[in-house]
Write a structure and sequence with these properties.
2 strands; two-stranded antiparallel ribbon; globular
Length: 110
């Protein structure tokens, strides 16, 4: 299963290009630009499963750093500040990781 099974390659390219510069990544803007906010709960869950690389049922800090590379192999890593900001926006229960419900809420708020 690949991200492009659910999201248009053109939307992914737009989103990646919009955050090429370091510290320019905005989780909500990225999720909106790639079209995730228009997806149904089943599709969001499938995308979450792809992003959860270690299959722990959470997206942890190390996986967040690699977030853009899940969408485009040549994309940059998120900076420490961007990763921290992503966690602050997505981790509603403060456990230091983003679960499916938190990810879905972040997607729907974008």
């Amino acid at each position: 299963m690949a991200i492009t099974d659910f999201l248009a390659a053109s939307d992914i390219a737009l989103a990646i290009n919009a955050c090429k510069a370091k510290d320019s990544f905005s989780p909500k803007m990225f999720l909106k630009t790639v079209g995730l906010s228009k997806k149904n709960p089943t599709e969001i869950k499938r995308i979450f499963t792809i992003l959860d690389q270690d299959k722990s049922s959470f997206i942890e800090q190390d996986e967040l750093q690699l977030f853009l590379q899940n969408f485009s192999k040549g994309a940059r890593l998120l900076t420490v500040a961007e990763t921290r900001g992503f966690l602050l926006q997505g981790d509603s229960d403060g456990d230091g990781k983003i679960g499916l419900e938190e990810f879905s809420a972040l997607v729907k708020s974008s």
